[in-house]
Design goal:
With 92 residues, the protein is mainly alpha-helical. It has 4 helices and no strands. Helix content is 71%, strand content 0%. Helix 3 runs antiparallel to helix 4. The longest helix is centred in the first third of the chain and has 29 residues. The relative contact order is 0.10.
Length: 92
Protein backbone atom coordinates (compact mmCIF):
# COMPACT_ATOMS: atom_id res chain seq x y z
CA UNK A 1 0.00 0.00 0.00
CA UNK A 2 1.30 3.45 -0.89
CA UNK A 3 2.04 6.02 1.77
CA UNK A 4 -0.14 9.08 2.02
CA UNK A 5 1.41 12.27 0.71
CA UNK A 6 1.61 15.47 2.69
CA UNK A 7 -1.50 17.58 2.43
CA UNK A 8 -1.45 21.00 0.82
CA UNK A 9 -2.46 22.72 4.07
CA UNK A 10 0.45 21.11 5.92
CA UNK A 11 2.82 22.35 3.22
CA UNK A 12 1.33 25.84 3.58
CA UNK A 13 1.81 25.74 7.36
CA UNK A 14 5.42 24.61 6.98
CA UNK A 15 6.15 27.35 4.45
CA UNK A 16 4.50 29.96 6.68
CA UNK A 17 6.63 28.81 9.64
CA UNK A 18 9.81 29.04 7.57
CA UNK A 19 8.89 32.48 6.26
CA UNK A 20 8.09 33.70 9.76
CA UNK A 21 11.40 32.34 11.10
CA UNK A 22 13.33 33.98 8.24
CA UNK A 23 11.62 37.33 8.86
CA UNK A 24 12.37 37.08 12.58
CA UNK A 25 16.02 36.25 11.85
CA UNK A 26 16.30 39.25 9.50
CA UNK A 27 14.76 41.61 12.07
CA UNK A 28 17.13 40.34 14.73
CA UNK A 29 20.16 40.86 12.48
CA UNK A 30 18.95 44.33 11.49
CA UNK A 31 18.51 45.32 15.14
CA UNK A 32 21.97 43.99 15.96
CA UNK A 33 23.49 45.83 13.00
CA UNK A 34 21.75 49.08 13.97
CA UNK A 35 23.00 48.74 17.53
CA UNK A 36 26.56 48.31 16.27
CA UNK A 37 26.30 50.81 13.42
CA UNK A 38 27.78 53.66 15.46
CA UNK A 39 31.27 53.16 16.81
CA UNK A 40 31.59 49.45 16.09
CA UNK A 41 30.94 49.83 12.35
CA UNK A 42 33.72 52.37 12.08
CA UNK A 43 35.92 50.16 14.23
CA UNK A 44 35.36 47.18 11.93
CA UNK A 45 36.20 49.16 8.81
CA UNK A 46 39.49 50.51 10.12
CA UNK A 47 42.42 48.12 10.16
CA UNK A 48 43.78 47.37 13.63
CA UNK A 49 47.45 47.03 14.26
CA UNK A 50 49.09 45.51 17.27
CA UNK A 51 48.13 42.61 19.50
CA UNK A 52 44.52 41.58 19.96
CA UNK A 53 43.22 38.52 21.77
CA UNK A 54 41.91 35.52 19.90
CA UNK A 55 38.51 35.95 21.53
CA UNK A 56 38.25 39.54 20.27
CA UNK A 57 39.26 38.46 16.76
CA UNK A 58 36.69 35.68 16.73
CA UNK A 59 34.05 38.17 17.88
CA UNK A 60 34.99 40.50 15.02
CA UNK A 61 34.78 37.58 12.57
CA UNK A 62 31.31 36.75 13.92
CA UNK A 63 30.19 40.38 13.55
CA UNK A 64 31.57 40.42 10.00
CA UNK A 65 29.53 37.29 9.17
CA UNK A 66 26.40 38.88 10.62
CA UNK A 67 26.94 42.08 8.62
CA UNK A 68 27.38 40.02 5.43
CA UNK A 69 24.24 37.95 6.15
CA UNK A 70 22.32 41.17 6.78
CA UNK A 71 23.57 42.38 3.36
CA UNK A 72 25.42 45.34 4.88
CA UNK A 73 28.59 44.47 2.94
CA UNK A 74 29.41 42.91 -0.41
CA UNK A 75 30.89 39.45 -0.85
CA UNK A 76 34.26 40.91 -1.85
CA UNK A 77 34.39 43.14 1.25
CA UNK A 78 33.37 40.17 3.39
CA UNK A 79 36.10 37.91 2.01
CA UNK A 80 38.73 40.65 2.33
CA UNK A 81 37.78 41.45 5.94
CA UNK A 82 37.57 37.77 6.89
CA UNK A 83 41.01 37.04 5.41
CA UNK A 84 42.48 40.05 7.23
CA UNK A 85 41.01 38.92 10.55
CA UNK A 86 41.98 35.27 10.14
CA UNK A 87 45.55 36.30 9.29
CA UNK A 88 45.75 38.12 12.63
CA UNK A 89 44.75 35.10 14.72
CA UNK A 90 47.62 34.18 17.04
CA UNK A 91 48.98 30.70 16.42
CA UNK A 92 50.76 29.07 19.34
Amino acid sequence: MATQRTSFTKLQRDRAKKAKAAAKRERRLERAAEARSGDDAEELDTPHEGPISAAELLHEIEVTHQRFEAKLMSYEEFEEKKAELLARLPID
